[in-house]
């Protein structure tokens, strides 16, 4: 338990329920169960990690390699600030909850199953994280499935599946397999079609200029307030002269009141100039139609010819997320644009209507 005032007085307290759960995880792994199988069982039985989250493969592995459970304390140290930190272990004062025989057996199995990660598949998955699970909304992650054909040849299929399912097992969500090649082809075609339509450039142009106008709206309101205040000061000034002419105030009072009005007027003039300068800056950012159309054409060309790694980066600059429909028919997926598309959404029906209307005009 961490000490609130003095870290040196912190200590480890064994909680029986948690100790039993840790023992169960070690026994399960020693008995041949994998990370994911253990995590899924714990999640199905309603257990949660210390942080209140569902168990994942990473959580289970973290428990299996935690030396705190064999009575040791882990700390980091380094020789100097420029050298990397190294972990050291010392015997603690708390009782171990995992015996050394079970610990060593588990560590041997971990070492046996741990091998350097070798990429058998160099394929890139540009839609990883962008596709959202139709059930839970979690980003979808790539997997590959190997099958042996009747001819004896190995076939590898690529999919996107729910990230929750991949991390926490079937207790958290369903896999919702989406064939990778089909999804990428559909999204690529939809995006190219969207960018290729002349109506889209006009729509982007309208949106750019509309947002510029929207940005200036608060400053325009402030400018109206300043103008009203200036008008009020002019009325006050005229009223002062009328009072002086009618003999209600003397020359000294008139001079004093006019000085006050002049001071307020100068402040308002400065405020008005700053607001006009700000609004002028937004007005300069209004883009000519030909510039927007050329930019859209350039994006479409780059998207079709870019190398896979560049294409992945480009996708992320244009797309914020892709809502996968419940039936996983990617023709009906909705693309939510990111900053590169001014956060515009690209529903399939809208694209079809706009493109078909444009083609009808060109016939």
TrEMBL record:
Going by the entry's taxonomy, the superkingdom of the source organism is recorded as Bacteria
PROSITE patterns recorded: RECOMBINASE_DNA_BIND
* One protein family per Pfam: Zn_ribbon_recom
By what name is this protein known?
Recombinase family protein
Q: Give this protein's Gene Ontology molecular function annotations.
A: DNA binding; DNA strand exchange activity
Q: Supply the Gene3D superfamilies for this chain.
A: Putative Large Serine Recombinase, Chain B, Domain 2
What is the species of this protein? Answer: Paenibacillus sophorae
Q: What is the lineage of its organism?
A: Bacteria, Bacillati, Bacillota, Bacilli, Bacillales
The alphabetized UniProt keywords are: DNA recombination, DNA-binding
Annotated Recombinase domain residues: 1-116
């Amino acid at each position: 338990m961490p000490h609130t005032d003095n870290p040196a007085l912190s200590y480890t307290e064994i909680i029986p329920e948690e100790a039993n759960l840790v023992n169960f995880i070690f026994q399960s792994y020693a008995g041949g169960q994998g990370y994911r199988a253990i995590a899924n069982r714990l999640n199905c039985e309603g257990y949660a990690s210390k942080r209140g989250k569902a168990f994942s493969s990473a959580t289970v592995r973290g428990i299996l390699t935690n030396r705190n459970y064999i009575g040791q304390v882990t700390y980091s140290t380094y020789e100097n600030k420029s050298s990397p930190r190294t972990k050291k272990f010392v015997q603690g004062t708390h009782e171990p909850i995992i015996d050394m025989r079970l610990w060593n057996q588990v560590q041997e199995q971990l070492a046996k199953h741990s091998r350097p990660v070798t990429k058998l598949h160099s394929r890139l998955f540009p839609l990883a994280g962008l596709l959202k699970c139709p059930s839970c909304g979690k980003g979808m992650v790539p997997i590959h499935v190997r099958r042996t054909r009747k001819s004896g040849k190995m076939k590898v299929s690529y999919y996107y599946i729910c990230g929750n399912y991949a991390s926490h097992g079937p207790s958290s969500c369903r896999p919702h397999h989406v064939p990778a090649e089909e999804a990428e082809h559909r999204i690529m075609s939809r995006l190219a079609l969207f960018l290729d339509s002349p109506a889209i450039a006009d729509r982007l142009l309208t949106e750019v200029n509309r947002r510029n106008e929207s940005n200036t709206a608060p400053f325009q309101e402030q400018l109206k307030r300043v103008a009203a205040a200036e008008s009020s000061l002019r009325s006050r000034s005229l009223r002062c002269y009328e009072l002086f002419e009618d003999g209600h105030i003397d020359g000294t009072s008139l001079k004093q009141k006019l000085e006050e009005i002049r001071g307020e007027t100068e402040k308002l003039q400065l405020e008005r100039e700053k607001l006009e300068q700000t609004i002028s800056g937004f007005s300069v950012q209004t883009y000519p139609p030909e510039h927007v159309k050329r930019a859209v054409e350039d994006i479409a060309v780059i998207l079709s010819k870019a190398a896979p790694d560049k294409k992945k980066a480009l996708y992320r600059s244009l797309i914020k997320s892709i809502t996968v429909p419940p039936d996983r028919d990617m023709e009906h997926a909705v693309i939510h644009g990111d900053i590169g598309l001014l956060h515009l959404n690209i529903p399939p029906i809208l694209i079809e209507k706009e493109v078909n209307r444009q083609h009808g005009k060109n016939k």
